[in-house]
Every structure is written in C-alpha cells, then in structure tokens.
Amino acid sequence: MGKSKGEMWQYFWQGAKANSSQYRAICLGCIRHHLGKVDLNDSETVTFKDEDAFKNACIAAGSVLGEKNAMIAHILGGEKLCRYASNAAAVTAKGLRKKIQDTKKRGKRERDDDSGNDEEPGDDSEPALSKRRKAVDWVEKRQTKLKVFKGISIPFSDEEEKTIHAQFTHATISANLPFQWVEDPEIIKLFLMFRSCAGSMIPSRKMLAGRLLKEEEGRVEEELKATLKDQNVTLTCDAVKDISKDSLMGVAVSAKFKPYLVDLYNATAERKDGDAVDEALGEMIDKTETNYKCTVVAVGTDNDGGMRSGRGKLGTKRPWVMTFPCGGHQGHLTGGDYFKVSPEAEEISAKATDLIGWLNNHGRVRCTFNNVQIERTGQVKSHLVANTTRWTTHLVAFLRLDDLKQSLRMAAITQREAIISAQVGAEKNFAASMALRTAAEEQLDVIEDNSFWRNLSVVIDDLEPIGYATNICQSDKARPDVVLLAFAGMFLHFRNLPPERSSVSKGMMKRLERRWAGFDQALMVTALILNPYERLDRFGPDAGANIMNVRATVVDLYSRVKSRPPPLELDPEQLEEWENKQMQQSREFSTAFLQYCSSTGPFKNWDELKSDFEKIHKEDPSIFWESMKADRALVELAEFALIIAENLRAHQKHDGLRDERQARKNHADDRIGQLLQVPRYADISQDNDQTTNQPALVTNRRKWRAEVEQWKRDAEKYDEEFGSDPNADLPLPETQGTSRQWLPRSLALLFGGAEPVTVVEESADNGRQPRRARRSVFTEEQLLMELLAQEQEDEIADDGALEGSGDEYSEN
C-alpha cells in the first residue's frame, strides 16, 4: 500500500505528472484568487474542481513541483511568493521548514516522517537524492556566504519570534530607518554575532514594511482607543510640507498632558478660508469622538487668517468647545515685534551673528582665540551658531558669545597681528590679501568696542523673556495659566525698561497687548484663578478682580462648557431628568467656587496646608483637584478645573520631550535648561537641508538680515490679518466701572502695580545700567547647537575664505 500524501498537499491541487515519480502542485490559494472566490477556505475550493472555471484557474495560477521544499518555498517565499495562501498553509509550511532547518543544524541526514509523502500517491519507491542545489529562503542564501564569528546557537520560540518581529518594527520607526536596513549584510553579520540563529528571525524588507507594520498599527490603534475612552481631550492640528511640497495636516489629541497622533491626511487641495476650516474642524471633532469614544473639550490651531476665522466660527456653533491659538507662534511673532520696534537691537544682533560666523569660518583664527581661552579658563567653549528653524537659538548663541567676551577681548588685544596673519594666510594677491586684512580688522574692532558688548547685553536681556515665554508656551504642559503668566512676564519686563528706552517699552507693550487680545481671556484668567497656588494673588490693584466679577467670568465659562447638547436618544422623561441634573450641578459649582475664593468650607485650611502640599506634590494644580474630587460637593468644580488645567496646551510636541512645568517660577535659574529644550532640533535642521539644499545655520550678517526680515513679515502679516492699526490704542476697558463685563481686560490693568526695584551695576566702560543676573545653565540647548555646528563644520570655508589662498601649501 502506497504512502499517504504529505501535509502540504492539503493546500495544493494535484496536477499533471511532472516526472516518473512526482506530480505538479497548484496552490489552492492562487486558484481561489483566479476564481474570484477569495472568501472560500481550502476544502471549499476543491468543490469547484469539476467546473471549467476551476481548470482555467489552475492554468492561470501556474504550478510548482509536488515536492515538499518547493511547496514550502511557494507558500513562505523563495524564488516566488504566494500572497493568496491561507494562514493554515503558512503555519504548516513554517513548521515543516523549522524541522528541516533543525535537522540540517544537527548535521543529520535523516528525513522527516512525512518527507516522502509529497510524491505520487500509491508509489512506494523513493527517488534518489538529487545533487542539484535547491532554492532556499533568501535570508539563508545570504547568510551562508557570511564568514563571521557567530554567537550561541539557541533556537527561538514562536512567542520570541513574534516579539522580535514587533521590536524590529518599533526600532525601524523610532530610528527613522529605511525598511531595507534589515537586508543589509553588515546588519545581518551584527545580529549573527549575538546569536547564530538570529538570521532566521530577521524579517525581510517586504514583511517589515507590510504585514508587521500593519499589525503594529492595529495594536497601537486599539491601545489608543482604550487610553482615550471616556477622556476629556484637546484637539490640535497643524500642517507641514513634505519633500514633495504637499501640505500634510496632522491631527492630534492630548489627554493628561500626553499627545497622541490620531490622523494624518493630505490637505493640499483643501480650501483655507474660514468656512472650510470650520467645517474641517467640526469633522475632526466628530470623527475623533466617534472613533475613540472621548470628549473633545478644546481645539487649538495656528492663528493665521483662515485658521483664526474658522476657529471663531467653530466656537460660535459649538460654544462648549473652547478654542485657543498657538502660544508658541505668538511668542515667535513677539520676537519679530521686538526687532521692528528696536532697529538698534537688529543692528547689534547682525554684528554678533557676523562675528560668530567669522570665528567659525576661519580655523586658524579660531585656534588663536581658543588658545587664549585655555590660558584663562583651562577649557575651550564652542562659538554656538543659531539655526533658522529655531529662532530662540539666537538667544543662546548670544549668551555664549557674551560668556566668552573676556577671552575674545584679551585675544583681540594681545594677539591682533597674529589673528590678522592667520586670516590672510599665504595669500599672494595684494588686493585679496588687503580684503582679508580689512575683514579681520573689522571683526577685531567689534570685539574691542565696549559699546557693542554693552548693547549686546541689552539685547540679551530683552530676548530672554521672549525666548523663555516661547519655549514655555510650546511645552506639552503649557496650561492656560502658564501661558498667561509668560505673556505677563514679557509685558512687565518691557514696561519696566529705563526711561531712555521708552520707545521700545511703549512699542512692545502695545504689541503684547495685541497678542493678548487674540486669546480667549476668560479661559486664561479662569485657569489662573483655579490654580490653588495662585488664585487672585497675581492680579494687580487695578485689575478689578473682586468676587462678583470673578464669579461671573468663571460661571459663564462653566456654562459654556456645560452647554453641550444632550444625547439624541433621550426620551422626554429622561431629557427632563438630564436638565434637572444640569441645574443641580450648576448650583453645586457656584457654591463650591465661592467657597474656594473665600477660603471657607472644605478650603478653609488650604492656606496653612499649601506649603506642605507643595513640598510633596510640587505646584501641580491637577493633583490638588484630583484630591478634591473625593468631596461630593466639590466634584463639579474639581472636574471643571481639571478640564481647564489638564487638557489645554499651546502646541503639540513629540512624546518624550515634554517639559515638567512648575507654576509661578517662569524664569527660575534651576529651570533654564528645561525651558530651552529644542525637540528634534537636529531632525528639523536635517529636514531643512533635504528640502531646500541650503544650510540652516545663521553664520553671517546676510542670513541674519534675511531671517529678521522674515520675522518682520510674519508679524506684519499677523497685524494685517488682525484688522487694526498696530499703533492704535486697544479698545479695552480702563477701569472697573466702565463696563458691566469684567473681561476683556489689558495686561496693564490685570498685572500692573508697583514697579520692582532694579539692580544697578557698573558696566565695563564705567557706565551705570540696570541689569538682571545672567542665567548660565543652557546645557541641553548648547549641546544640541554644538553638535549641529560640528556636523556643518566641513561645509564652512576655512582660512582665507578666497579661492586660491596659499594656506594649504608649505613655505618650502
């Protein structure tokens, strides 16, 4: 009696005889595909064997030799790959291949129990082993040629293989690697050094970019649905241009300060007017709430014309959704405002940028300055270069330049001729050598100029609050009260400038008031009031923040948030019950808020307990309000405060770069390193190089001018879209009694008061000027800038800066 068919034949149809002992095998999955009946399983496919369509499908599908290795190679991929085979076929083929590989590794030549069962049914004879090399898996063919030390030989289990494949996907996406990296011979060598069985675990490029990526996407999506379910979230959207210049719109939501990307689509063909943006935002909200079973309580966008108009229309149609502009972008525009109102600052900044570029562009000159640094301090600090995609790096670059002032001045005075000689080099042409000498002398004169350093210090003092505020506003934990205090800090800085700088003071105050007028003031002020560490303490004497005004503002915002329509499926009785519950919750909220403001009831001991609570939990209002939810009478107030505090952010940033913000310490020295974080700075700069083929570093006066002009254009465009004269006074109430409505209200009224006492110190040229203590901790920002500068160093022209300079030749 002949042997039975092998396991693989249950997934193949037996065709014509190929030779004296074997038949052709036709994959049932391929037959299903050509039949157009992909929903059938393998056994159901065979039921069509008598139909002409089945025979035609067999011809169209093609066949392989009815031998186990050939059929396995067809299913799992060898010379051909079957995309239509069933999952059962793939599992069986995988198990058989593993048996074959294990047998080869042990060095045995025995065959599986079923090894001869793939031949002609009824034939007892076994064919002679062929000496011809058979096609094997691609990875095996590649690995057999690798002559490399191999690690321990321990096979992987199926569960380990699944986990390893998932980790390959994580690593590829996290490191932004091309999918073909897994097929690089050197990568395979590396993994084999760890474990000799690693080769069989490395997925192919096609598997990594296809099945594994889809499986991981599905897993992450399910995890995201579980995370966002029943959460109050903030939705933000922003567009970026890819390498093809298409506009890609990213939609993200944040819950408990953590952002999640939920959608990404091509918006190149979409209209950008207010009506279109309003409609798009509404669709984003509905889609997010439907897919993730969450509640969108706020929407944040950029503040250009279409976005601002659409956001306003959305707030009118859906008053329960709070809307706000990007605070980080407002900080960027404030930087443009500063250089508009202070041409002197623009000129000094241009000189400083030109000096930094000169120092970095001439290696021999830089070595002379570095030697003086070593003599003075025992170390060498780099001359940091600003980046066009991150304008706050100009502040850090200027701070480093100011830090190196003494070393630079000493070198300029004691090594002047040596520096000029290093600049000129071996240039023989008289005109060229004079041009190099003149350029060097100009920069040395700048270094020796006391007024330059004094004015640079003034520019740094002005840029510091703008830079800090911008980075605060774009942090994931930029609560509305934090954004408000950041803008108030900028306003107070410029308000307190000395009288001789009154033009800059008045110009910046007016422009900051205009930025503030573009925010939802009720939202920002309510967040500050509901911060238990702040409450009403920050408001000035002219703010008019009495209990009646404050209560009216907060209750009005609460009513807006609670105005979300009831579920449509409620019957009249349920609707009445829902309305009664809303009224009861409103009464509880109002009562609890009055107790909070007057420090009575559950809050009567808060002032005494606040310092101890702060030591344990820092100054996080979310922890405070979470603890207050234990009191039933405070639930409504606590949940509303958490909606305001937890879910509103100024801008989206990449997960893992979130900044832990501590309230009421906007510019403390121990926070400088974190406040000046630059997320994916190197990546942004690399993206800039890829799309424009131009360096992102600002290394000379021309680039500085171009960048400042761009800032000015951005600020002017905003002013034009805002719809009023930038020099006109804002129509804000001047006193408490001018209007029944407390807000809107100017920053001057909210936070104005007695001016702080400034510290006066002696300047380098015996002049007297107000000066704040210089911040010195910028390690994270400086490190990123230094690394970027080193990457670009090969692109910077060296000594002479003129083609044909003789510096590269010896004097022999």
UniProtKB/TrEMBL annotation:
Residues 115-126, 791-812 have a biased composition (Acidic residues). It comes from the Eukaryota. InterPro entries: RNaseH-like_sf (IPR012337). Residues 99-114, 653-672 have a biased composition (Basic and acidic residues). Residues 99-134, 653-697, 790-812 are annotated as: Disordered. Residues 685-697 have a biased composition (Polar residues). Transmembrane segments: none annotated. This is DUF659 domain-containing protein.
